[in-house]
Amino acid sequence: MLVKRGIPASPGVAIGPALVLGSEDFRIPNQFTKVDAVESEILRLRYALEKVCRELEEQQRLANERLGQQYGAIFEAHLLMARDPKLLADIESKIRKRRYSPEFAASLVLRRHARKLKELSNSYLAERATDIFDLEKNLLRHLLGEQREELSQLTAPVVVLAHDLTPSETAGLNKQFVLAFATEGGGRTSHTAILAGALEIPAIVGVGSFLTDVSGGETVIIDGDHGEVIIDPDEECLARYRENAARSKSVTERLQPIGHQQSVTQDGVPIPVYGNIEFPEELEHCRLRGADGIGLYRTEFLYLGSARERTEEDHLEAYRQVVQAFPDKPVVIRTLDLGADKVPSQQKLFFNGQPNPELGLRSIRLSLSDKALFKTQLRAILRVAALGDVRVMFPLISSLAELRQAKMLLHDVSEDLAEEGVSFRGDLPIGMMVEVPSAALMADQFAREVDFFSIGTNDLIQYTLAADRGNPAVSQYYNASDPAILRLIQMVVTAAERHQVPVTVCGQMSSDPKFVPLLVGLGVRELSVTPQSIPQVKAVVRSLAIPQARELAERALELDVASHVETFLRGELLKICPEVVL
Amino acid sequence: MAPSNVARRELTVALEQGLHVVPCSVIAKTAREFNGSVRILRGGMVADATSIFDLLGLNAQRGTVLTLEADGEGAAEFLDRLVSLFESGFDTPR
After folding, report:
1. DSSP per residue over A150-203, as a string?
2. Using CA atoms, how far apart are residues A553 and A574, in angstroms rounded to an integer?
3. pLDDT tens digit sequence for A136-149
4. CB contact A90 to B (< 8 Å)
5. pTM attached to this predicted model
6. ipTM of the complex, rounded to two decimals
7. Which residues of B fall within a CB distance of 8 Å from A120?
C-alpha cells in the first residue's frame, strides 16, 4: 500500500483499477514500429504534421492581424520548418528503413537539426534551436494525442493517473468509465481542476512524481475530499473507504429533494442559491438540484482547447443554451477570466513565462488589452440579454478606472449594435467580482458604479494572504477561515448595504456548509455554489434564523486565529444542521 | 538528352545579422516556387534552398561568400530574382 498526497481538486471518493497515461513531456512509448504498420504509421505522421501546419497558419494569421507582420514572420519561419520537404523525407525514411515509430523518428531528426544549429558557434542561430524543440513538441503532441484518444474510447471503469491532462482531455472524459483522476502536475486553480469539479468526478492534482510507482491495473483509491491517492490499498483501508462511500452516498441522496424546496430561512428571509457552471451539461446538474439561477457562468471554455478564435456567433450560441435552460431566472455571465498564455490569439510565444502569472496580464486586464477579443464577447452578451434575465460581470477588477473602462467598452458595443439594428438589451445589470483586496477596500466607491457585487473568495483569499492555493508548500497559509477574510467580506457587505447593491458569494467558500451561517450572518443574501452543493447549502439556509446567524457572525469576528474560527464554525453547523455533517 | 540549363551566381552576404531565420524562410519559400532545383553553396557545404534547415546550417554571416545554383527552366531569371532579394535585404516578405 502506498499513499500519495496532492491537492484536492474535486470532492468525492472513487475506487477502481489504474490507467496510467504517458507524461506531458512526451515520453515516447515505442522506439520501433511493426513491419506491416509502416504505411499507416507514415500516414499518421503526415496527418499530425498537417495539423501542426494548420495551427501555425492560424497563429501566423492572428499574429499578423494583432501584432504586426514582424511577429507573423516568426510563425512563417516555423511553418517553413514544418513544411520543409527534407524534414518529412528524413523522418519517413527512418520509419521505412529502420522501422522507427513516427514519434521516435521525428524526435531523432528534429533533435539532430537542433543540435547542428547549437554547434554552429553562432549564438543567434543556437537560440533558434528552441524553435525546433517547439516544433518537436507540437508534432509529438499531435502524434501522441491521437493515442491518448483511447481515453475517450474506454469500455470499462478506470481511475486515470497521468502526468497532466489538458483541459480538452479533461472535458472529453467519459464519466461513465472514468471514475476519478489524479495528476502529477497542476494546481487547484488549473483549468483541469475546475473542469473535474464541473464533471463531478473526484480529482487530485499536484501529486508530484508518482507514476513510476504504478504500472497500471492496480487498485487505486482517489480520495478527492482529502487529496489522497492510495495505491494498492490493504483490506482494512479498502473496507473503510467502501463504508464511507456508502454513507456519503446516502447523505447526498437524502438531501437531494431539499434542492427543490424554497431557499428561505426559518424567519422567512429568502436566500437564493444559484449554481456555478461552465459547460452546457452542467445546466442539467443545476436543474436536477433545484438551482435558483446561474450565479456564475464561466466562459473560459470558449477560449480553451481550440487554436481558432471563437466568433461572436459561437459565444452567442453557447450563452443562448444557458439562458434557454433558465428562462425566467438570473444568469450571470462572467467575461474572460484567463491568463494571456491560455488564449490562442494572444500567442503563447510572447507572453509565455510571465514570472508571476497570477499578478500578470490576465482576466479583465487581458480583455482591456485586446479590445477586439473583448468586444466579440460583449456583443454576444448584449445580444443574448434580449432573451432573458442576463447580467454581465467583470472579473478581477482592481481599480475604478478599470471598471469604468470596461463599462465604457460595453457602452460602445451597445451603440454599435444599435446602429447595426441587431436586437440586444443595453441596460442589463452590470456587476463586478470582488476578489482583489483593493476592490474590497474600495467597495463603497465601487458600489456607486455597479448593480451588484460577487465576492470571489478563491482569489480574494489567495491575494489577501499572499498564498498560492495551488502550491502545496504554502497551502497551510491559504485559509478561508482567516479573520482577515471575514473582515474583508464584512466590509464589502456593509458598503453594499449602504448603497443597496446586492452581494453574492460565488467562491468555493459558499459551497462549504460551515460557512453558510457565517455568510448569511454577515449580511450576504445570495449564494452561488457548485451544483452538487446546492441541496446541502439550501438545507443549512432552511435551518437558520437571521438573528441567530448575526450572533454567530459577531462571535466569529471576535476570534483572532483561523483555526479557532474554523473549529467554532464546525461546532455551530453541527448544532444548526447536523444532517449535512458526514 | 535535354540540354542542361544550369545557372550560377556568386554573392557576398551583406545582411547585418547574416542569414538568420527570416531571410532563410524567404529564400526557402521563394525556392519552392521554382520548377527545378536550387542550391546554395558555401565552401564545401551544399544547401538545398527549399530546406530552411539546410539554409540555417550554412551559418552564413555578414561577409560570407555564397554561390547560388539553379537547374531548370528559367534558371537564370530565377537567380536574378533571388539575388535581388539578397540585395534588398529581404525587407519585403513575400
Report:
1. GGGG--S-EEEEES---HHHHHT--TTTEEEEEESS--TTSHHHHHHHHHT--E
2. 16
3. 888 888 887 755 55
4. no
5. 0.68
6. 0.85
7. 57, 59
